[in-house]
């Protein structure tokens, strides 16, 4: 009987050991996977930190500067408070606003060199929105200590601009910590005195034409790179390996030369007394007095940028073409297709991933180019990046520069989204 009862007990105990072993194995597997993920994260942490410091934080700061504008509100707190109830911006504010402005200017003037520097910054900021305001503010600040009530008459006597609602509307509009005036100015728009969004005056409409020119130059450079790069990539993919390797080195050779050297070399080639026109003159194709202008205009920008960006079109195309089997073309020929028809209907569709990758790469690089247009573009070949640099280095209007950069970034992201919808990012092949 003991033997009979021992059998069922041992049989029921066996599954319990299996369940326990299975749970232990799952716990060990989770622990091992967790350790692998932690190690992988630690290995990529330096790269992630590098991207955060050099890419994400600067872009975030640029986007923030495009709307951040607390200067006027911090420098003129009494004036901003007095204008809080001023809603009809087509008429002048009351005496309290004038008195508050005088008090703010007196406080700033009494703050020593820092206060006087702040007056200059406020005057410059207001002048970005309304021309001529800088001299009005600085001149009034020097006389503020001697002004007495009624302050409205005193300010208007000091400068006639204080009798215009526009300057007060500008102060009220810039009184907050955040503003959209920079983004509007990037599109040649502005706030009118009554708060409505209108176009800038004709003499200040610059950026829409500049955006269109940048887009046009980038499209032309991309098309030129396709026209020149596609045959070269096809030749590299079909030649014997020893010859194609030598030609690949020739394609990569410009990368071993400074970008500045490559750009300035085109000045020597395309100048009025340059190599190209001198050669055409020797052949009698151009005269001495009617030589075409090939540099310091859009032509020079397109030629130089095409030369610099051409490898970025050739390499993705070559990587895709190298993987296309020649048997497809032979099969199409054997079925009666002409060489041209076989190339267009069979070969070219297989190169779309490389062509798309090259086009989006060249276009995005061309949109943000700065050095080449600055050196060989002249007035007609200037692009949006040159104006961003101007506002960062010369006019010191960092808010407008950040707004231009933000719109440029938005355009690139929109292009990336459009490419994903039409071609598909998964079909992109860069190598």
Task: Explain how this protein is built.
The protein has helices at about 1-65, 70-75, 75-80, 95-110, 110-130, 135-145, 150-160, 165-175, 180-185, 205-240, 240-250, 260-270, 275-285, 300-320, 325-335, 340-350, 350-365, 370-375, 385-395, 400-420, and strands at about 190, 195-200. By secondary structure, it is mainly α. The protein has a two-stranded antiparallel sheet with strand order 1-2.
- Give a quick account of the main beta sheet: strands, pairing sense, barrel closure: 2 strands, antiparallel
Count of strand segments: 2
Using the alpha-carbon principal axes, give the shape. Answer: extended
Written as H for each helix and E for each strand, in order along the chain, the element string is HHHHHHHHHEEHHHHHHHHHHH
Order of neighbouring strands in the sheet with most strands: 1-2
Write a brief caption for the model.
The chain is mainly α. The chain is 71% helix and 1% strand.
What layout of secondary structure does this protein have?
Layout: H1 2-65, H2 71-75, H3 77-82, H4 95-109, H5 112-129, H6 133-143, H7 151-158, H8 165-173, H9 181-185, E1 189-191, E2 197-199, H10 207-238, H11 241-252, H12 259-270, H13 275-283, H14 298-321, H15 327-334, H16 339-350, H17 352-367, H18 371-376, H19 384-393, H20 398-422
Antiparallel strand pairs: 1-2
Helix pairs in contact: 1-20, 4-5, 5-6, 10-11, 10-14, 10-17, 12-14, 14-17, 15-16, 17-20, 19-20
Record keyword descriptors for this entry.
431 residues; MetI-like fold; mainly alpha; 3 domains; two-stranded antiparallel sheet; single chain; 2 strands; 20 helices; 1% strand; disordered N terminus
